[in-house]
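Appendix B. One record, verbatim.
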Amino acid sequence: TLTLAVMPKLMEYGVPMLVETSSSGKITTSGNPWIFRISPTSEMEAKAFASMAKKMGIKKADFLSTNNDFGLGAAKEFSAMLKGQGVEVGTMETMDPKATDFSAQLAKIKASGSDTLFVTTAVEQITLILKQAKEQQLKARIITTGGSNSPDQLIQQAGDAANGSFHLVFFTPWFPEAVKNPDVARKFVAEWNARKYPVGGLTEGFRGWDGINTIVAAIKAAGKAEPQAIQKALWNVKVKGINGDIAFIKQGPAGKESAQNVPSVYVVKIVNGKVAKN
């Protein structure tokens, strides 16, 4: 939502922007050639999860999403992917980004009788949803999307209520050997821990590392701090990122394409207060 809001100014001033978090498909399909995104779109995330959905044997799914482009976009893409697999989609509930009471939505979801609940929002609301779902004895497994869920924070803040929940993440600091560039991942995690940064920030902090290194590579290739030169250079960068190799493909209308990287997506589960491989 915030990224979409500033995009017209990029066009007005002719300045490239590297996007390392936002997931709305509109960002790279609206015809803004100054956009370079390294995080996955909701569509990419849903497609990556498709094979995992089959393995989990999901039969009926409900959705609880924050009422903005982030949440609504994820619900749209994941529900479409599931329907394509023959999965029944039940209730699709939304919530205000600042809400703290989800009892009404969870009551409807419980009555739906689904086996899976997809949740898309920030870690603060996920914490409350996990706690309130446990209070209501919700039997559906909970899967969070969007990569901004910080499982370590959920363990600290939600306690036992986090056990059994699944989370889509774009970096697995608990298992650096699982990513495409484990040497880069191990170095990043070691430096993060050496500086005594909060462990829960690793699943967000890596985005900044990948983003800044991509920008640095483009500036070096451009040879000058000129927006058009950096824009041109970004199209040709090849960076060994924590989330995999960073390079851009074209998305959007011909002649006004935005740039999109194709990053990795992983699923982890919280078991007995620890993050485990799914």
